[in-house]
Amino acid sequence: GAVVSQHPSRVICKSGTSVKIECRSLDFQATTMFWYRQFPKQSLMLMATSNEGSKATYEQGVEKDKFLINHASLTLSTLTVTSAHPEDSSFYICSATAGGGSYNEQFFGPGTRLTVL
Amino acid sequence: AQSVTQPDIHITVSEGASLELRCNYSYGATPYLFWYVQSPGQGLQLLLKYFSGDTLVQGIKGFEAEFKRSQSSFNLRKPSVHWSDAAEYFCAVGAYGATNKLIFGTGTLLAVQP
User: How many helices (DSSP H) and strands (DSSP E) are in chain A?
Assistant: First the structure.
């Protein structure tokens, strides 16, 4: 149980275009989803936290107009990188929690490799 | 502020040797602590976690970790390393409250030599 998927696993796009990444909880309802960014050989940096049906909470320094997050249902959150530039190339990982406890374990997706040319 | 430090960026051990990966945290109360493993180009897999109770925690793949409050540490150990253990290992601390945020250390890259 507790499987999280991401789609696509890899995407290459041209500079100036927008890219959408999907994060799905396959066997549980995710009240909260998290989006992380990981640069090569570096740790995961939290970008934003999204709760189903409400606006995402972005971490300091993350441009909310550039990284649009939508958590439209309890099983799906999307991250759209708008007007992508080469510096947006990175590994994006989502995680999801089921909620209901004092601490809710995060289950991670396999990640999406974005390359902007 | 909460933080996690993994002092060793890269470690190489011989197959069959024991392993200890260090993790120190800064947190105002008893933290929730985690160790994750990441293979190249993959997401994160939870090895083990500490929430409360016994300070020696057993995880998957033969790993264990010990919570030492006095040292603010949560070191990961394995008595005998296998070549398949080569990967990146991340220690993380979980924040209390509704946010359930995780703060990650910078990671330790483990190489296993024959």
Answer: 0, 11
Query: Which residue from A minimizes the CA distance to B5?
Result: A43
**Looking at residue B99, what is its pLDDT?**
64
Dig out the tokens for B6 from the structure.
């993994």
A40: number of Cβ within 10 Å: 7
Q: Is the peptide bond before B31 cis (omega within 30 degrees of 0)?
A: no
Evaluate the CA torsion angle A36, A39, A40, A42 in order and state its sign: negative
> Are A49 and B51 a contacting pair at CB < 8 A?
no
Structure letter (DSSP) for residue B17: S
For the stretch B10-52, pLDDT in tens is 999 999 999 999 999 988 777 889 999 998 878 899 999 998 8
**In this structure, what are the phi and psi dihedrals at residue B110, rounded to the nearest 5 degrees?**
-100, 125
Coil, strand or helix at B84: helix
C-beta neighbour count of B28 within 10 angstroms: 8
User: Nearest CA to CA, how far is A32 from chain B (Å)?
Assistant: 9
- CB–CB of A93 and B100 under 8 A? no
List the structure tokens of A51: 């709760």
pLDDT digits (tens, 9 = 90+) for B93-112: 987 665 678 889 999 999 99
